[in-house]
Amino acid sequence: MSERITKDEIDNTLESMGEKAKLAAYVLAVMSASDKNRALNVMADSVENECAFIMSENLKDLKVGEKKGLSAAMLDRLKLDKERIKAMADGLRDVASLEDPVGKILTSSIRPNGLKIDKVTAPIGVIGIVYESRPNVTVDAAGLCMKAGNCVLLRGGSEAIHSNLALAHCLSRAALSSGLPEGVIQLIPWSDRRAVSKMLTMDRYIDLIIPRGGEGLIRAVVEQSTIPVIKHYKGICHIYVDSECDQKRAIEIIENSKCQRPGVCNAIETLLINHDIAAEFAPKVAARLIECGVELRGNSEFRKFVPDAKPAIEEDWYEEYLDLILAVKVVSGVDEAIAHINRYGSGHSEAILTTLPKNAEKFMNEVDSAVVYMNASTRFTDGGEFGMGAEIGISTDKLHARGPMGLPELTTYKYLIYGEGQIR
Amino acid sequence: MSERITKDEIDNTLESMGEKAKLAAYVLAVMSASDKNRALNVMADSVENECAFIMSENLKDLKVGEKKGLSAAMLDRLKLDKERIKAMADGLRDVASLEDPVGKILTSSIRPNGLKIDKVTAPIGVIGIVYESRPNVTVDAAGLCMKAGNCVLLRGGSEAIHSNLALAHCLSRAALSSGLPEGVIQLIPWSDRRAVSKMLTMDRYIDLIIPRGGEGLIRAVVEQSTIPVIKHYKGICHIYVDSECDQKRAIEIIENSKCQRPGVCNAIETLLINHDIAAEFAPKVAARLIECGVELRGNSEFRKFVPDAKPAIEEDWYEEYLDLILAVKVVSGVDEAIAHINRYGSGHSEAILTTLPKNAEKFMNEVDSAVVYMNASTRFTDGGEFGMGAEIGISTDKLHARGPMGLPELTTYKYLIYGEGQIR
């Protein structure tokens, strides 16, 4: 399909989508919470009511995927059934029930000259989402962005194009029918790469890009974009086991952080063990992890105590396995642990397991990551677990949003200043 | 000088500067407010004590500038005398006296599972500043970034290279002598463009780029950078005079916004007048502005009442004159004013002059700019006027910082989570 489209056609279509989104954003920005919530519920009903249509479009993607030889895991991620469609609709209803993040007064002050300065939350405007595979992102992202008063331009992966188009069609029609302006939810109808390139330079219309997918996708987005991007490349999370700690609890936390769901970004990839306890602790934790099916790759000091572990090479410290593999290093103490994490980590989530408050404080202050734990599993880095209600993603950037991003992170602020004729 | 340097030499030098800055940032991040303040005062003294050296280096730049045929205005901006050097030193002392923005608990909550989640401000890390002409940026930016716990990589313009090197030398030596780690303040020693290009892709070391200068410089930075950028391209500020307002005050505010300092970004470039009062108000405001030496460029309706005004063309609405020129349009009402501003404006600062609260509310909610005023001059958009103490710049972006950026905007946050063995 995309072979026949010229670059001009793509550019013109995207320009007009961008302009439409920008104009819609001004209208959406001042809509009441109840109007937005009503629309979210209508959108949820629409997705559920159109279940048969969505599934038939999804089937097209699945057939193409099979022909292309996608793995069973990939096909499963792509697949939409009644249950998953219901879950997407319920997700929209959950978003409707969350607090409106727009119009909150963050600070208010009166200057000596009498000017009253209010700093108030406001929608960002137009948000571009670039994502891969799972069609549920279409629904989740559209719902969250809209709730925060933002229009979305969605660009999903080619493997889910029919599913995404069907979902976006339901959502935008429902939004329109509930009184939202045209252009609040738009999906780029081609998986053509030229369309992404064009999208990423439309800084005139788009205020923020959020890429969701593998590191390759995210790097390509960052390199091309003239629009601010919020992202996370990788989740290389660490646990450091200190010289004094509750070893039984430590083993539970390590097992949970590694094994409960090894394929996600907040699972640990590297374990650091204080050498003072290594002789005792290393064999114990190794036994438990091996029991759970984890492959261990250790530095030479760790392998003294766990000779069966494979040797870790330099690359292992940089690796996001997303699998039942764990790199393990015996370190001299909290300082070496911090230095290791700041050098090899991805700034996502790290934990210290200790009963020494001084070491905990040092670790938490000096580790340069979005989330730093004392005596808890790294698996808690999640919008839901933080009480945000829903998350659009996790940021390992330090600008605007760091860590889990919920509705407040989908807003900006503006200053409203009330005067009585003041001049400078 | 720069012709002889190879790309490899530039790249290697910048890599090692970046790495040094990153390592220094971890140390600086946990230094106490009093240690940082002491260093700022030592830096101030050093700049003052080295006044003769700085002036002799500045003289080199002035001589080169003269040969190159820089304008008198440019040479004046470049020039450093005793008074200006004293002012820079006093600026550092002022920054020392401001509140430390690091380590503030923004929110704190206890989750149902007992996890205590604190959201705490933290330094951003390494900040790159790309700027033109005025050497005082070297000192101001270094001081503000350092106070917020950040290292800086400075890259000034070629016309001020000797002055900047002299200043950076004083600052970094003083920082080092007061116990700060090496690498807190570094200036790229070449004005070579290849050095900027390299700098803008060092996302491994640099966390944020702040460009300060003309629109051309800023666009080039945004296009090349893989590091988040906070910027403002232009300040096309507007005043809208509503159908009912205190006309005498309105004229004072308009004169102040246009004429008090026409060359700055918070001066107005366009005046919008409600057509209900245009017949009475347009000639009055025109007379005052012409008296102040302002050239008026009006739409046809404005020129009915002020025939001497030049006709405005489409380009005028996009223009940042930075001069005693003002575009003027008679509009049908608050809706047209808002639409005009959202279309042609730069998202900086706008004001409505009105006695109708409903129109003020509509204007303030619907205008998509960093700062929106009711009945006050746009000239108040300034860190000092906002009570920030000092500003590093003004952002027309919507991410992370919008409007004047002070010390708090030079920080990020991190989540510190305290557990007792919680697993998921």
What would you say this structure looks like, in words?
The structure is a homodimer of 424-residue chains. In chain A, strand 3, helix 6 and strand 4 (151-155) form a beta-alpha-beta unit. Chain A has helices at 7-28, 33-49, 51-68, 72-78, 82-97, 136-147, 161-177, 193-199, 215-224, 247-259, 275-291, 300-305, 334-344, 357-366; strands at residues 105-110, 116-123, 126-131, 151-155, 185-187, 208-212, 237-241, 268-274, 295-298, 310-311, 325-331, 349-353, 371-376, 393-395, 403-405, 411-422. In chain A, the strands form four sheets. Chain A has a seven-stranded parallel sheet, sandwiched between helices. Chain A has two domains: 2-231 and 406-417, Aldehyde Dehydrogenase, Chain A, domain 1 (3-Layer(aba) Sandwich), CATH 3.40.605; 237-380, Aldehyde Dehydrogenase, Chain A, domain 2. Chain A has 424 residues and is an alpha/beta fold. Chain A is built from 14 helices and 16 strands. In chain A, helix 3 (51-68) runs antiparallel to helix 7. The mean pLDDT of chain A is 96. Chains A and B meet through helix 10, helix 14, strand 13 and strand 16 of A and helix 1, helix 10, helix 14, strand 13 and strand 16 of B.
Q: From the 3D coordinates, which CATH architecture of the largest domain in chain A would you assign? A: 3-Layer(aba) Sandwich
Q: How does the overall form of chain A come out from the CA principal axes? A: globular
Biggest beta-sheet profile of chain A:
7 strands, parallel
The helix count of chain A comes to 14
Largest interface: A-B, 66 and 66 residues
CATH superfamily of the largest domain in chain A: Aldehyde Dehydrogenase, Chain A, domain 1
CA-to-CA gap between the ends of chain A?
A: 60 Å
> What structural class do helix, strand and pairing data of chain A support?
alpha/beta
How many domains is the backbone of chain A divided into?
Answer: 2
Estimate the strand proportion of chain A.
Answer: 15-25%
By DSSP, the count of extended strands of chain A is: 16
Uncertain residue segments of chain A: none
Mean pLDDT of chain A: 96
